[in-house]
Amino acid sequence: MFFTNLLIYRLSADSTLLPDDLEAALAQKPAIPCGSQVTSTYGFVPALGKPQDPFVHVVQGFMLIAGREEERILPGSVVRDALREKVVEIETAESRKVYKKEKDQLKDEIVQALLPRAFIRRTVTFAAIDSSTGLIFVNASSTKRAEELLSAVREVLGSLPVRPINVKQSPEISFTSWLKYHEVGGGLFLLDECELRDTAEDGGIIKIKREDLSSEEVQNHLAVGKVASLLSLAWEDKLSFVLDNKLTIKRLRFEELLQTQAEQDGGDDAAGQFDASFVLMMLTFREFIPQLLETLGGEEQANSV
Fold first, then answer.
1. Whole-prediction pTM
2. Do residues 238 and 128 share a domain?
3. What is the pLDDT of residue 15?
4. Closest to 22 (Cα-Cα) out of 165, 162, 155, 163
5. I need a labelling partner for 57 at 20 to 30 A (CA). Which of 94, 170, 248, 266 fits?
């Protein structure tokens, strides 16, 4: 149970999520299959994956929840081809033109006819909650997917006062400074990937991978005014990741040191291994996230969220 992506949200200071309350709320919206004429559904599943398990998995005060989207995948090209064939059939048989209003109606009929045979895709999104620090970690690389989960939680709870984590100054200022002076701090150090953005309107983006970020090439781009919008970083030989200017963490990897520790802590039991890795992940986040935010200039505070 190591997350591979990370979007971080801050609960309001006066908000508390209790495991029993959250369990009762999530149970009101279990994930259900798509009906034959339903394009998508969203609900919660037990975090450990077994039907008899609780929706909220709690270990040492940390909570893990999971939301599942089920959707019928109907490619647009299939609908367009079927509509084109139907229009040709009508125009040929009845010697008349099929106009937009009728085409729209035909399209709806085709979609309804094809939906029961459409491929079904299920996507599970996990979120970990650390109530003591007021942080929610969502294992997602897209804001849309994270917001789907949080919106579903908000729906069953009645409210969920959270906001995306933010820092006092633009991350691009920090990124660019780190590249310029080859120095980061806070236990962080540069790896071998970055994106450099031209600040001019409609300016381009240069992607650099598997290169020395202290190279003359990178410095030349910075010298003409480009700014860094993405960096690959490592932290204390424990984590490696890619961080963008929206503070989205992608390709998060827990290094061998932590993986070995989780295996030792978890013993031979699969459930024990799961819990050990989950707790170790959350304890690592408790140490890592404050250092990351401080190195980026400090977390932006808000009176309310």
1. 0.86
2. no
3. 80
4. 155
5. 248
Both 14 and 135 in one domain: the answer is: yes
Which two three-digit tokens encode residue 54? 């609780």
Run of H or E residues at 180: helix 171-181
C-alpha to C-alpha distance for 155 and 28, rounded to whole angstroms: 10
Helix (H) or strand (E) holding 221: helix 216-223
Q: b or e along 233-260 (b: 16 or more beta carbons within 10 Å of the residue's beta carbon)?
A: bbbeebbbbbbbbebbbbebebeeebee
> Same domain for 291 and 187?
yes
Among the listed residues 138, 140, 129, 121, the one whose alpha carbon sits nearest the alpha carbon of residue 62: 129
Q: Which of 32, 272, 292, 258 is nearest to 137 (CA)?
A: 292
State whether residue 299 is helix, strand or coil: strand
Match 């989205």 to its residue by tokens. 248
Cα-flanking dihedrals φ and ψ of residue 110, to 5°? -65, -45
Number of domains observed in the structure of the chain = 3
pLDDT (0 to 100) of residue 303: 55
Structure tokens at 99: 């106009």
Residues 6 or more apart whose CB falls under 8 angstroms from that of 257 comprise: 237, 238
Q: Which one, of 139, 152, 169, lies nearest residue 285 by Cα?
A: 139
**Which residues does the chain have with pLDDT short of 50?**
304-305
- Measured between alpha carbons, how far is 59 from 283 in angstroms, rounded to an integer? 12
Residue-range definition of the domain harbouring residue 20? 7-71+120-164
Query: Do 200 and 275 form a contact (C-beta atoms < 8 A)?
Result: no
Residues sharing a CB contact under 8 Å with residue 124, sequence separation 6 or more, in sequence order: 45, 66, 67, 68
